[in-house]
Design a protein that fits this description.
This protein has about 300 residues and is α/β, with parallel strands linked by helices. Helices cover about 40% and strands about 10% of the residues. It has eleven helices and seven strands. β4 and β5 form a beta hairpin. The N and C termini lie far apart (about 75 Å). About 25% of the residues are buried.
């Protein structure tokens, strides 16, 4: 505590002149400091800073400086990235961020045979970023009654979340996610479905389903987890922005988990800006690609 702040705290009980003599500061210096404090407190905050606080609160600490800058510019406030960073530091605002991760060179397997027909073991970036690509990761969630399993489906090009299923037990994981393979949500006939090397994605039932829907099965290379980086990034972001805001056990039961995850993915599709698609929403990009596909592939 500075000497002037000490005087300000004790002036209700002692004379200002006496306090200034005790801490060895001039009386005029204290009153000059007091006037400066009053002027700083009465100074109006800039409009863009007030808008930043509102955007940060509406998105529940899920926006960092990059997304905040984009959101402010779309509201008409032309600010650089350092100004939101300074405003957040002054106000004590901290965004939710996944844990830092340092990538390491992947371990390449040796002695692997040639891939089978219709089976992709090393999906290229072009394939996984095209619109006709679906990713089907699986994750487990803690509840008061134990762990539950969740399996989601996303379109890689638009970051559109297509749905989540909640298998009741590990055995039911073998039931494939068929809702992403048919119906109006399917973007293209030549669909590429990517997953990790889990047993449920190598079963006969799953392979037969993809064959019936004329979809190409794609899996990560053995010993190379980075091929499934998009799915892992989705779960990392979901766990950071949902689990860290709750106390353990995170969910009371299955119904509570389903409602919370559904609310988050609605926000993920319709409100969150995604840097990988030019800071657009998944819904906006998904609708654009659906229209583009309808023009390129007329009935």
């Amino acid at each position: 505590m500075s000497r002037y702040r000490f005087i300000e705290a004790q002036r209700s009980q002692y004379l200002v002149r006496l306090l200034c003599q005790v801490v060895a500061v001039p009386v005029s210096g204290y009153y000059a400091w007091q006037q400066a404090q009053e002027q700083a407190g009465s100074k109006k905050k800039p409009a863009w800073e007030e808008a930043l606080v509102k955007v940060f609160g509406r998105h529940k600490r899920r926006y960092g400086t990059r997304r905040l800058q984009v959101a402010l510019r779309r509201k008409g406030y032309h600010v650089g990235r350092q100004r939101p960073h300074g405003a957040m530091r002054r106000r004590g605002l901290h965004a939710l961020q996944p844990k830092a991760f340092t990538p390491a060179p992947p371990i390449r397997p040796t002695g692997c045979g040639a891939p089978r027909t219709g089976y992709s073991t090393s999906p290229s970036r072009r394939k996984l970023t095209r619109y006709g690509s679906a990713i089907a990761p699986i994750c487990r969630w803690p509840t008061a009654t134990g762990l539950i399993c969740a399996r989601t489906r996303t379109w890689s090009a638009s970051r559109w979340w297509a749905g989540t299923s909640w298998p009741p037990c590990r055995r039911s994981w073998l039931r494939p996610p068929c809702s992403a393979l048919s119906g109006p949500s399917r973007p293209t006939p030549d669909l590429l479905v990517h997953s990790d090397r889990g047993g449920q994605y190598g079963g006969k039932e799953y392979r037969q389903l993809l064959h019936d829907h004329e979809a190409l099965r794609s899996q990560s290379r053995r010993g190379d987890c980075y091929d499934n980086a998009q799915a892992e990034s989705l779960w990392s972001r979901l766990k950071t922005e949902v689990l860290e805001m709750r106390e353990r056990p995170v969910f009371a039961n299955l119904a509570n988990a389903q409602a919370s995850v559904a609310d988050y993915f609605y926000y993920y599709n319709h409100e969150r800006l995604h840097s990988s698609i030019g800071y657009q929403t998944s819904y906006h990009t998904h609708q654009q690609l659906l229209q583009l596909n309808a023009l390129n592939c007329p009935a």
